[in-house]
Amino acid sequence: MNYGIRDIIELHVFDETGKFVSTITTLKKGSISVANRTIRVKDALLNGDMLKFLNKSVTDVSDYDKFFSTTQNYETIVFNRKVVNCKLIAEGFYRKQENQEDVLVQYEIPQCSIVSNYDFNHSTVGNADDFDYVFEIKEYNGEGDLFKLHIEK
């Protein structure tokens, strides 16, 4: 059976224990490289759940800190470069060559990591800024396996 890669992936992110974090549905581009052991995706929007997952959300602020906000309802996120371990399921579609039928494909990545790596470019000219995520795929067993590919029959 021969397949063509037909669609952008949708990325489901879980913490390292398997607890759901976020589904990134606004991806513009994605690639999975076995040679480089990476998943690189370009998101059209800034995902708030991923911001909190990759960084540190500060919810308990002092009255002094609240003074600097014009509203009393805000959230503070502290950025750092720590490595965050996670699990991923990437979903997309392949197209069968024989009958042009689309079939669901899932990449199961049991062990990977990501570092917060945002660039905030503000501009009123052109398109909105993209946000890149680069996940490092890690071996999930002693046999060197990286991920599983599930193709709908």
Describe the structure.
- The chain starts with a strand and ends with a strand.
- Helix content is 7%, strand content 47%.
- Strand 8 (83-96) and strand 9 (102-115) form a beta hairpin.
- Strands 1, 2, 3, 4, 5, 8, 9, 10 and 11 form a nine-stranded antiparallel β-sheet that branches. It has a two-stranded antiparallel ribbon with strand order 6-7.
- It contains two helices and eleven strands.
- It has helices at residues 48-54, 63-66; strands at residues 3-5, 10-15, 20-24, 27-33, 38-43, 56-58, 76-78, 83-96, 102-115, 131-137, 148-151.
- With 153 residues, it is mainly beta.
Structural class: mainly beta
Shape: globular
Give the biggest sheet: 9 strands, antiparallel
Number of helices: 2
Radius of gyration, taken over Cα atoms and rounded to an integer in Å: 19 Å
Low-confidence stretches: none
The SSE order reads EEEEEHEHEEEEE
C-alpha termini separation: 10 Å
**Share of helix, binned:** under 10%
Please count the beta strands (DSSP E, at least 2 residues each). 11
Assess the beta-strand content as a share of residues. over 45%
Mean pLDDT level: 85
What are the salient characteristics of this protein?
single chain, 153 residues, mainly beta, two-stranded antiparallel ribbon, 11 strands, 7% helix, globular
Briefly say what this structure is.
The chain has about 150 residues and is mainly beta.
Topology, element by element:
Layout: E1 3-5, E2 10-15, E3 20-24, E4 27-33, E5 38-43, H1 48-54, E6 56-58, H2 63-66, E7 76-78, E8 83-96, E9 102-115, E10 131-137, E11 148-151
Antiparallel strand pairs: 1-8, 2-3, 2-8, 4-5, 5-10, 6-7, 8-9, 9-10, 9-11
